[in-house]
Amino acid sequence: MDKLLDKLREWIKVIQAALLGTIIIEAILVIVIGIASNKINDTFDHWTGILLACSVFYIFLIVIKAAYQFKFPSSIVDELISKRQLEEKNKLFERQKAINEYINSAIQGLNKQTCSIDTVADNEHLCDKELEVRLTELLQPIVSYTDVILDTSTEKKFTIGIHLDAYQKFPSNYEEVEINEVEWGVYISDYDPISDKGLLILRDELELLEILPKNLVDEERISGAAYEIQTAIKRTLNNLTFNTHDFSYNDKKYSIICSEILEVCSDDYVNGVLFIIHHQGISFPTDVSEILGIFNRITANYVSKYNSCIVDEIISKKKKNNIAS
Asked: Which residue, 198, 207, 245, 269, could crosslink 232 as a Cys pair with Cβ 3.0–4.6 Å?
């Protein structure tokens, strides 16, 4: 690209110099032709010769000037356009390659965490850490490389979170949890003590925690930016669709991207929403909804495994306590 620009710059300098010289010569020729035109008579004399010679030279100059104009380096311009298009395609390819690697990394993280669950042994379990921490680890590609996914080089700060309608947690009081044993296994009779819902914040470089309480979606008396965010999340929850929404907060303009998290093994039930908040002005690619949808499928499977881990761990501890007592 630099070589092509150097060629174009040199050619423009030549054109500018030639144009200046041509203007001066044309002015001289016009003056001489004007004088010769007033001096000629019916006989062929030296003024007639000067007029003819100047006229021929003027025509020749016009032809040369036109030739230079037609010879303007369109090939260089075409090369610049082709070079630019190639760079854009390479950039698109590199972005797609990076995103494929991110997805692969997330899937490997899902397999690594869920394939080693053992509720009997004392090794690390999937649910040994809070779900917010686990999801931040799982969705590290989105959390760390949001600018690549949104294809922006101007914005580097984002607020990213997930709203889940339901997920499991360890109870504050195990006495509130009752388990029943039947022929086909052991189950928890009442899930209320171990059920939770709400926002999980994975990244907050925009410092918006003040308007992102955990129970935001269920809040009734809210207004302003918090209400706008709630509206966007609810729209995705209710309509099972990807959407964007603009809002203002502290005299700054933001946009929120919402992508539905379907329940595992379901295409009809939404269990949550992945949202990304950024400053207004980003024109992201049309494939963002599909990319986030892939990560959301991974998230749904992960949450399902996490919930199973919680339940298995609770049952295991309750059984141990019953045996000990």
From this structure: 245
> Within this chain, do residues 59 and 188 fall inside the same structural domain, yes or no?
no
Indicate if 192 and 238 belong to the same structural domain: yes
Q: Specify the 3-state DSSP secondary structure of 45.
A: coil
Cα–Cα distance measured from residue 41 to residue 44, given in angstroms and rounded to the nearest whole number? 7
- Rounded to an integer, what distance in angstroms lies between the CA atom of residue 200 and that of residue 215? 10
**Are residues 20 and 99 part of one domain?**
no
Sign of CA dihedral 303, 304, 309, 310: positive
**Is residue 175 assigned to a domain?**
yes
User: Distances from the Cα of 54 to the Cαs of 37, 47, 51, 60, in angstroms?
Assistant: 11, 10, 5, 10
Instruction: State whether 24 and 98 are in the same domain.
Output: no
pTM for the model stands at 0.69
Higher-pLDDT residue of 235 and 268 is 235
What are the tokens at 111?
Answer: 């397999």
The helix/strand/coil state of 42 is coil
| Position 156, amino acid | K
- Reduced to 3 states, what is the DSSP secondary structure of residue 296? helix
Q: Span 277-297, mean pLDDT?
A: 90
Domain for residue 260, yes or no? yes
Alpha helices in the chain (DSSP H): 2-39, 46-70, 74-114, 131-138, 140-144, 146-149, 224-239, 288-324
Alpha-carbon distance values, 196 to 62, 165, 186, 316 (Å): 84, 8, 22, 20
Same-domain pairing of 18 and 97: no
- pLDDT at position 8: 64
Quickly tell me which residue has 């964007």 as its tokens: 244
Dist. CA 131–CA 189, nearest whole Å: 23
Q: How many domains does the chain have?
A: 2
pLDDT bucket at 248, cuts 50 / 70 / 90: very high
- Segment 253-274 shows an average pLDDT of 91
Residue 243 lies in domain? 86-324
